[in-house]
């Protein structure tokens, strides 16, 4: 069997690589060793399960409505893990069928078994002795990652869990200790705190999620604390041991001892390259099992590509898909325009999303920027849905007004961010939001409010006594007066409703 392309791993990176190549008329095979076959960590243990369970938690607890109807908060008193998992079985099954169908329709041949290199273009499928061989002109490696499982941690899948097995919990514990408050730890920690579980989050770093804007993290911490979460940051975990069937102790280097019914150990993930025998292809994985590649996702060996979590940051399903398409395009000499602004969506409670630069990065690069902020409490839709703590922050260049970053926390933040992303990718300025009319009452209004806030700040800074000197101000005032006289024949728009009627793109519902 000889293929133009063999893809190893059927997570988001592998899927999109395989389909992209088959659309170019290539003969493509995808190899997957998991028993439940195609879909990867994304479909079977990571993204889809965690987001489906999160949605079930928000629905069954009535979390989204609790701001609007505090007295009716909680749809259901007793919630079980089986109820949380009920929708998951259906979502996973349907997603799996959609994927399998796509492969069939596009003629992608699925091989079930573990792949390993014999040489650069020869791949063994299955264990030695029960294997067969396939040949490939090009290979795309998308084997993903596995949770880090240090030997001294007593994982048992009953009280001490890694993140791939966590949703197998047989009941909702009363208390839970999360070691590693990265993306996975915080997402699961806050989900379970929403269910009323007493959660302690422990992390070795002094600050949470350092790649996220600090103001957004402040809001997240406020929410975490109001859900009863205890944060232990800057703490090293020395030891974890079971006390009895229903409790585990986590010992910290500082001498603290935290006891919980369940421990989630989520201190990062490692590249799943151990079985691949990458050395036979001329490759070497780093000590975290990851592979390096160039900007086209080609490794140091021509014709072998690596995409998805195996190449490290940002380690997102969304990015993996794009990388898969890019690698396949490069292998078959097709043009490809990579996305320069990948958003980050954190499905915490409440959710967070961010795209572009944050304040810390702009400050470090000495970029003159200003911020425009809209708080959900001042947006009619925010009041209606009962989310009055969320916020949207725009960062823009103080002189050119170009949009540089969008940071959002609150209901639907992971959707809302895409409006800003579109404007940013098209090189737009925040004037776009000032001059565009959005449906009302919607959360999109945040963009307009934030833009007006930002523009007002600039105006204020310019006319404040500390800004331009008195002489300069007089000159500006004279120029303004002359301009005013000239424009006196034009209508002056003072209110949003007047602006609305003038806007060239009023949406129709
Ligand atoms: C709990 C959790 C929540 C997440 N939530 C989100 C989210 O909300 N949004 C988001 O964008 N991302 C999220 N992610 C990250 C996302 O799941 C990953 O970025 C994505 O799955 C990576 O895709 P991938 O293509 O690299 O491979 P993976 O999805 O990791 O799949 C790799 C596949 O390769 C197979 N494989 C490995 N080695 C071999 C071999 N030798 N032979 C045959 N097959 C092999 C594996 O069995 C696996 O099926 C989450 C991750 C976790 C763990
Ligand atoms: N919504 C999403 O997009 C989403 C959701 C979940 C996961 N993911 C992806 O999955 C990847 C893996 O997530 P993760 O949370 O496992 O890894 P991570 O690298 O994001 O976080 C690991 C955390 O554990 C801490 N840590 C490490 N060793 C420790 C120790 N001994 N004691 C205490 N703390 C320790 C680190 O300081 C870090 O904060 C992420 O990079 C992310 O991209 C994405």
From TrEMBL:
<dbReference type="GO" id="GO:0050660">
    <property type="term" value="F:flavin adenine dinucleotide binding"/>
</dbReference>
<keyword id="KW-0285">Flavoprotein</keyword>
<protein>
    <recommendedName>
        <fullName>Soluble pyridine nucleotide transhydrogenase</fullName>
        <ecNumber>1.6.1.1</ecNumber>
    </recommendedName>
</protein>
<dbReference type="InterPro" id="IPR004099">
    <property type="entry name" value="Pyr_nucl-diS_OxRdtase_dimer"/>
</dbReference>
<comment type="function">
    <text>Conversion of NADPH, generated by peripheral catabolic pathways, to NADH, which can enter the respiratory chain for energy generation.</text>
</comment>
<keyword id="KW-0521">NADP</keyword>
<keyword id="KW-0963">Cytoplasm</keyword>
<feature type="binding site">
    <location>
        <position position="51"/>
    </location>
    <ligand>
        <name>FAD</name>
    </ligand>
</feature>
<dbReference type="GO" id="GO:0006103">
    <property type="term" value="P:2-oxoglutarate metabolic process"/>
</dbReference>
<keyword id="KW-0520">NAD</keyword>
<dbReference type="Pfam" id="PF07992">
    <property type="entry name" value="Pyr_redox_2"/>
</dbReference>
<keyword id="KW-0547">Nucleotide-binding</keyword>
<comment type="similarity">
    <text>Belongs to the class-I pyridine nucleotide-disulfide oxidoreductase family.</text>
</comment>
<dbReference type="Pfam" id="PF02852">
    <property type="entry name" value="Pyr_redox_dim"/>
</dbReference>
<dbReference type="InterPro" id="IPR023753">
    <property type="entry name" value="FAD/NAD-binding_dom"/>
</dbReference>
<dbReference type="GO" id="GO:0005829">
    <property type="term" value="C:cytosol"/>
</dbReference>
<feature type="binding site">
    <location>
        <position position="268"/>
    </location>
    <ligand>
        <name>NAD(+)</name>
    </ligand>
</feature>
<feature type="domain" description="FAD/NAD(P)-binding">
    <location>
        <begin position="3"/>
        <end position="324"/>
    </location>
</feature>
<feature type="binding site">
    <location>
        <begin position="180"/>
        <end position="187"/>
    </location>
    <ligand>
        <name>NAD(+)</name>
    </ligand>
</feature>
<feature type="binding site">
    <location>
        <position position="309"/>
    </location>
    <ligand>
        <name>FAD</name>
    </ligand>
</feature>
<feature type="domain" description="Pyridine nucleotide-disulphide oxidoreductase dimerisation">
    <location>
        <begin position="342"/>
        <end position="450"/>
    </location>
</feature>
<dbReference type="InterPro" id="IPR036188">
    <property type="entry name" value="FAD/NAD-bd_sf"/>
</dbReference>
<dbReference type="InterPro" id="IPR050151">
    <property type="entry name" value="Class-I_Pyr_Nuc-Dis_Oxidored"/>
</dbReference>
<keyword id="KW-0274">FAD</keyword>
<keyword id="KW-0560">Oxidoreductase</keyword>
<dbReference type="GO" id="GO:0003957">
    <property type="term" value="F:NAD(P)+ transhydrogenase (Si-specific) activity"/>
</dbReference>
<dbReference type="InterPro" id="IPR016156">
    <property type="entry name" value="FAD/NAD-linked_Rdtase_dimer_sf"/>
</dbReference>
<dbReference type="InterPro" id="IPR001100">
    <property type="entry name" value="Pyr_nuc-diS_OxRdtase"/>
</dbReference>
<dbReference type="GO" id="GO:0004148">
    <property type="term" value="F:dihydrolipoyl dehydrogenase (NADH) activity"/>
</dbReference>
